[in-house]
Structures are given as structure tokens and as C-alpha cells.
Design brief:
single chain, alpha+beta, three-stranded antiparallel β-sheet, 3 strands, about 15% strand, globular, binds zinc ion
């Protein structure tokens, strides 16, 4: 299971995004950033944005 913690982006937020693949969890993080934090979809979904998000991915059991 791939997970991304929103707080790893410096936000005061306890959200944790999970996915079976790197793409899944990156997409979940993008959706969360846009809907919950008003972040820019174009910026987050650009190659640079996705690379930055991918760097925060952690592996967790279950
Ligand atoms: Zn958040």
C-alpha cells in the first residue's frame, strides 16, 4: 500500500491518502490538495508537481 501524508507537504492536516499504485496515490493527493486546500490543479498535475508528490510516497502494510 502506498500512502502520502498531507502534513508532509507542510500543511496542518491529518489526511492520509492511500493507493495500490504510485499513480493512484498521486491522483488522490492531487484531488485532496485541490478540493481541501484550494491548490492549483494544473500545477499539481504537471510533471514537476507529480514528481514532487511522488517524493512523499511511503510504503505501509495493509
Ligand atoms: Zn490536507
Amino acid at each position: 500500500m502506498k500512502v502520502i501524508y498531507c502534513r508532509d507537504f507542510g500543511l496542518d492536516c491529518n489526511a492520509k491518502m492511500r493507493g495500490n499504485s504510485e499513480d493512484d496515490v498521486i491522483n488522490a493527493a492531487i484531488n485532496h490538495g485541490v478540493s481541501m486546500h484550494g491548490q492549483d490543479l494544473k500545477k499539481l498535475s504537471s510533471d514537476d508537481g507529480r514528481t514532487e508528490i511522488a517524493a512523499k510516497i511511503k510504503e505501509e502494510e495493509g
